[in-house]
Write a structure and sequence with these properties.
three-stranded mixed beta sheet; 2 domains; three-stranded antiparallel beta sheet; about 20% strand
């Protein structure tokens, strides 16, 4: 959790993000992924300052458990001082203990974002889907959270100005935007209407009037010339140097 410190930007984890989406489809199938067409609704995870801290956290946890189709999972949410945003104890279940950073006692609107990541850990644990190494496994978790409709909360928790910053998760804001863009292409969905953070909107909304459409770049397998294509799902690209025609999944 970046809390007042520098926020990493760009696409340093893009290879792992793409591998995560591939692994998700291999484990779930296209048909199962399509059942997550509805994202978590803002109203379902809204948390007001006047709400009871523990009852409200349990309510939001139940909504996220419902979103991930874990009907028998029960999350017990507590708070303590820690360096990370949250932690979940992955056991055989059906009861899982989640600890949230004490910061969320006064930053309640971001509790849904923190819990979304931890519930996804439970979901992947039950799927027996994991990557070796803590870093790659956390990137997998962020990617799956976002691709299956709960990760817009994590991007919306990103806020940065001259005096302070906050970012949850292991992906950069731009990488969260990349995964959201791929989800949007699949489900014809615009999550930006739910954002409360201007920085989240900027990370997601790549428009020709601003930074231009999001693109991916890779070397041509024939001549190694760099090829740049827009993020649009499946596209056909022709190398400008050797004229090789490639089918690309962006």
């Amino acid at each position: 959790m970046a809390n007042g410190g520098p926020v990493e930007h760009g696409f340093p984890h893009l290879d792992t993000v793409r591998a995560s989406i591939t692994a998700l489809y291999r484990r779930l199938s296209y048909e199962t992924v399509r059942t997550f067409a509805a994202s978590v609704a803002p109203a379902d995870v809204a948390f007001g300052d006047m709400d009871d801290l523990h009852l409200g956290a349990q309510r939001v946890a139940r909504e996220l458990v419902r979103h991930f189709r874990l009907p028998d999972a029960r999350l017990v949410v507590g708070f303590r001082e820690m360096s990370h945003a949250a932690n979940v104890e992955l056991t055989a279940g059906p009861e899982y203990f989640v600890e949230l950073n004490d910061r969320f006692r006064t930053h309640r609107r971001d509790i849904g974002a923190a819990l979304a990541h931890e519930v996804t850990h439970v979901y992947l644990h039950r799927l027996d889907l994991a990557f070796p190494g803590t870093r790659d496994n956390e990137i997998l978790t962020d990617t799956v959270t976002t691709y299956l409709g709960a990760g817009w909360l994590l991007l919306d928790a990103y806020r940065e100005d001259a005096a302070s910053s906050q970012k949850l998760g292991y992906l950069t804001p731009e990488e969260f935007g990349y995964v959201l863009a791929k989800r949007s292409l699949l489900f014809d969905e615009d999550p930006s209407v739910w954002f409360t953070s201007p920085q989240a909107y900027t990370a997601y909304a790549f428009t020709p009037e601003e930074r231009g459409p999001l693109r991916v770049s890779f070397p041509c397998p024939t001549c190694q010339q760099r090829i740049r294509v827009p993020v649009r799902g499946r596209v056909r690209a022709r190398c400008g140097l050797c004229r090789t025609v490639l089918e690309c999944d962006t």
